[in-house]
Amino acid sequence: MTVQGKTAIITGSNSGIGLGVARELAKAGSNVVLNSFTDRDEDHALAAGIAEEFGVTATYVQADMSKGDQCRALIEKAGGCDILVNNAGIQHVAPIDQFPQDKWDAIIAINMNSAFHTMAAALPVMRERGWGRVVNIASAHGLTASPYKAAYVAAKHGVVGMTKTVALETAQEPITCNAVCPGYVLTPLVEAQIPDTMKEYNMSRDEVVKNVMLTRQPSKEFATVEQMGGTVVFLCSDAAAQITGTTISVDGGWTAL
């Protein structure tokens, strides 16, 4: 599977899943555009490191994914777009009657609306270039629900719906649009939560992972960012040219329940 010479834009990619996806795409030969809302020296250094490690072009473009005009400007500033990976996202947990309105608005904007804006801006570019791949990082919560996550569940269900719509709109073109639905992925953010959870429950690391964090993940193992990236690379490859409008779950069996 190769994406040699393609240009890939990955939103929310200076850490976690987004960075893992960017690295796997670069490893497969794609030039990558990293993104987040910050604009620090270390963000640009991250891109430079990927370029040096994999021998591709890698740049960092700051854009706030809560703002539609910045989402669209990201596509323009990237200087090309063959592959679009919508990954940016945030989370907040609260009962719906106590859910802060500003948190609802931010989650819907960043997790769902940003994908609308980037896809709307990227599709004309892909059509001009005669090829395109859109991969939306949804969630197991795009297919099922959990309590206290109303905004996140709503946004991820919306992303899955948009994915299907765009796939139908591009079905007779050399463009595909799919969603990847991860369960729990071992990111630095998740890893950092484990010690506090061990103290809270007076459990070992393995007990916390299996009995607290992965209660809904039958495999009792985290997915890795490398596995997430590999799934995206597959969806961007020629092997997946007839896979469009669908979801691929990387959730250890969560949605099989």
Automatic annotation (TrEMBL):
The enzyme's E.C. designation: 1.1.1.30
Stored Pfam families: adh_short_C2
Gene Ontology molecular function terms on file: 3-hydroxybutyrate dehydrogenase activity
Broad enzyme group: oxidoreductase
Record key words, sorted: Oxidoreductase
UniProt keyword Oxidoreductase present: yes
GO process terms (BP): monocarboxylic acid metabolic process
Similarity comment text for this entry: Belongs to the short-chain dehydrogenases/reductases (SDR) family.
UniProt-recorded name of the protein: D-beta-hydroxybutyrate dehydrogenase
Gene: bdhA_1
